[in-house]
Amino acid sequence: MFSSHGPSVRELAVQGLSSVERGYDLLAPKFDHTPFRTPDRMLDAVEETLAQYEGAFGAGLDVCCGTGAGIGMLSRLCRGRITGVDLSAGMLAQAEHRYGADADRVDFVRADARALPSALAETYDLAVSFGAFGHFLPSERPALFSGIHTALRPGGVFAFPIGAPLPLGSRVWWATTGFDAAMRVRNALWRPPFVMYYRTFPLGPVREDLRAAGFTVETVPLTHFGHRPDGTPHWRLILARRRG
Asked: Taking 80 as the threshold, does the pLDDT of residue 11 lie above it?
């Protein structure tokens, strides 16, 4: 799963016993050599689907941008300024190093996604996020979605991929269920907590929380990843639009 340039088992253990912020600060220099980075295949599928359904945008926001995997995609979809927001200073340092030559167009802001700075209000036409939602408890989704809603201009779109429910009893279902159970035990016994769960972001409740935050919600199949035996897609793209 990890390349020779990735973190060692010891480094992963130290990260896992840290807070989310500190853990990603430690992991940042090697993060792009782990399977945790959003695959280019997913980024390409989202970019192609957004271009097909929405066309071009003005300014773009990457929420929980990490080392900046989604910034290149936004720079191609958006005509205006691109901003990446993340809590981890270490991850932002890696992103800034990667996109330093584009500083006239790309900037990065260190902030908690649950409390985005007021200076970002009604600034963006497109917001995206990849692979970060497991770091937010269900009770934190309203604050997360409300902040993104505020950052968008009226009519702006918040887009992100979401996977279909895993087949009950499948190998992946057992793996993710076991991981989540282990994390709950870890967080009950160890401080600071490290919030990372795989099965706390189901489509139905997420859709309701988006609507409560002021979005209209549409789902588009990401056909690049095929369909399940019942004909439903393995992955969908959520298009949450700020009303008005």
From this structure: no
Q: Integer distance in angstroms from the first to the last C-alpha of the chain?
A: 44
Q: What is the mean pLDDT of residues 196-218?
A: 96
Q: Mark whether 46 and 157 lie in a shared domain.
A: yes
Instruction: Please determine, for residue 1, whether its predicted confidence score (pLDDT) is greater than 50.
Output: no
User: Which helix (H) or strand (E) segment is 158 a member of?
Assistant: strand 152-163
DSSP character for 101?
Answer: G
Q: In the numeric block, which tokens belong to residue 85?
A: 């927001």
CATH number at residue 149: 3.40.50.150
In terms of domains, do 154 and 105 share one?
yes
**Residue 189 belongs to some domain of the structure:** no
Which residues, in sequence order, are CB contacts of 13 under 8 Å at separation 6+?
none
Note down the domain range covering 80.
38-165+202-242
Helical H segments across 190-228, by residue range: 203-212
Residues 82 and 24 in one domain: no
Using DSSP's 3-state secondary structure scheme, residue 130 falls into: coil
Q: Which two tokens stand for residue 194?
A: 């490290």
Task: Please state the domain count of the chain.
Answer: 2
Q: Return the biggest CA–CA distance within the chain.
A: 50
- pLDDT for 2 equals 53
> Residues, the chain, total?
244
Do residues 88 and 25 touch, judged by C-beta distance below 8 A?
yes
- Segment 223-229 shows an average pLDDT of 94
Q: What span, in angstroms and rounded, lies between the C-alpha atoms of 193 and 238?
A: 29
As a whole number, mean pLDDT of residues 85-94 equals 96
- The identity of residue 31, as a single letter, is F
